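User: Round two. Same drill as before: sequence, then structure, for each protein.

Assistant: Same drill it is. First protein:
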Amino acid sequence: MPTRDRRSIDAASRLRIVVLGYIVRGPLGGLAWHHLQYVMGLAALGHDVYFVEDSGDSQWCCYDPVRDVTDTDPSYGLQFAATAFARVGLGDRWAYYDAHRTRWCGPAADRGPRLCAAANVVLNVSGVNPLRPWLAGAPVRVLLDTDPAFTQIRHLTDPDARALAAQHNAFFSFAENIAQADCTVPADGLNWQPTRQPVVLDAWPVTAGPAHGKFTTVMQWDSYPARTYGGREYGMKSASFMPYLDLPQRVGPIFDIAIGSATAPRDLLRAHGWVVRDSREPTRDPWTYRRYIQESAAEFGVAKHGYVASRSGWFSERSAVYLASGRPVVTEDTGFSSWLETGSGLLRFTALEEATEAIVRVREDYARHCRAARAIAEQYFDAHAVLQRLIDAALASPPAAQRSGGAAAVHLSDRE
C-alpha cells in the first residue's frame, strides 16, 4: 500500500531520518499504525527514512498476543513487523536491535548501525527506545511525547527517564495546550512544542458508514497506576469511564468496546448494556484494526483522566483515523476544542448529558457528520502538513537546545 508522493521535497532538502518506535515489542494493530504513519508520511515527503527499534535491556520487553506473555523473545513481533512493512511498501526499511542476544534483525540489519550513525534526524516516538551510541551523534534528536502529564511526571520523579530525555535536543508533545495558561501539565524544564498524530490519508479510504451500526472504540482500562504530583491526581481511563456507565440506558445498546487490561470490570459493563470484547480481536494486525473502524458507525471514547485534568489538549491517534475513515467521533474533551474544530463530525463532551446529546445528534444527521469527519482529518491531521511542520520546527530548534545532550534545556528548578 505505497502512498502517493504528492508534494515531495527537492533532493537538496532530503534528510536521513530514523524513526524509533514500538512495533516488534508491541505487535498490535493500533500501535503499528501509530508508528507506521510516521515512516510512511516521511517517506512520501521524499526523505530517506528507516524505522529502528531497540529491545531495551528489560527482561519484559516483547509482547506476544498469541502466547499472551511478555518476555525477551521477539519472534512473533519480527514476523508481524515484516508483514506490516511489506504491505505498506516499505519492506526493506526497518531493523530491530535485540540487546538480549546482541544481534540486529530485519531487512536492514546488516546496515543498522551505519544507517543510524548517518542520520540527520532521530525521531524517538513516545521515548520508548534508548539512544545507543550509534544514535547519539545525530545532529537533531527529537523526543516525541505522546503521553502528556505522565511523561513530564516521569522526568520529574524518575532519574533514568530524565537521563534519557536529556540525550535529546528537540522536544515535541501531543499536549497541544502545553503553553496555555490553563494547561497544568507539570513543567519538567524541557522546551516542549506542540505536535499531533500524522495520518496518511491514502491509507484510510472513506467507505460508506453503517448508519445503524455500533459506536466503538479500542481502549486500555488501566495502562499503569495513576500518578500524583504537586497535589494533583492524574488517573487512567478507568477514572474517566464510570460517569458514563449508564449511557446505553439513555441512547440504546449501540456500543461495542474492545478493552484491554485485567482490571476492567467487564461483567459490570455488560450488565449496563455495553458489548465488551477482547482488545486483541480487532488489533490482531493493522488491517483487522482498520476493518473494525470501517465496520463501525462512529467512535465513542473517553480519555485518560490525567489528560482531561491537565487540560493538555491531547487528541487520540485512534480518533484521528476514525475521522479519516469518515467516521464521526464523540469523545471526552481534554482541552482539544481550543485548537480543533468541533460540533460536526467531531463532538466533544465533559459530562453525561453532553455525551448523550452528542450521540443523538450524530444519529439524527449521520451522513453529514461522516462528511465532516473526513474534512476535519484532511484539515488537521494530513501527514504531509503535520510532519513538514514537525521537521521544520525540529531543524529550527534554538541553538542552545542543539547542544549535545540538550543540557541547556533542562532546569530542575522548574519543578512544580
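Second protein:
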Amino acid sequence: MENLHQLQDRLGKGFYVDNFYEMASLCKSLALGSTSPVPFFVMQHVFLGIAKNWEDRPLPVEEAKLVENKMMEPLIHLVKAISLNASNETIYNILDNIVATYLTA
C-alpha cells in the first residue's frame, strides 16, 4: 500500500497543522480502499481533531511536543501493525489506546 508508506513518512515529519491535514487525507484514501476502514477512519478523525484544536488555540511549543510525545508512539504502532497484517484484536487494542490517549492529550 503506497498510501500506508506515505502515512508512515508523514508521521515521521512530526505534528504540525498542515501535516495533520495531509495525514487525514491519506487516511481517508486508505479507508476508502480498504476492507477494514476503521483504523484509518479513527486516525483521520484524530488528525483532523488535533488540527482543528491547534488552529483554534495554538499551543506553546512545549505543550505541542507533549501532545506529540503522547500520540506518536501508538500511531506509529498502529501503522506498523496494519502493514504487518496484525490480528483484529491487536488492531483494536492499539485503537483503544489511541482513542484513550487522544481524549486525554
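The helical segments are 2-12, 17-32, 38-56, 61-83, 88-104.

User: Perfect.
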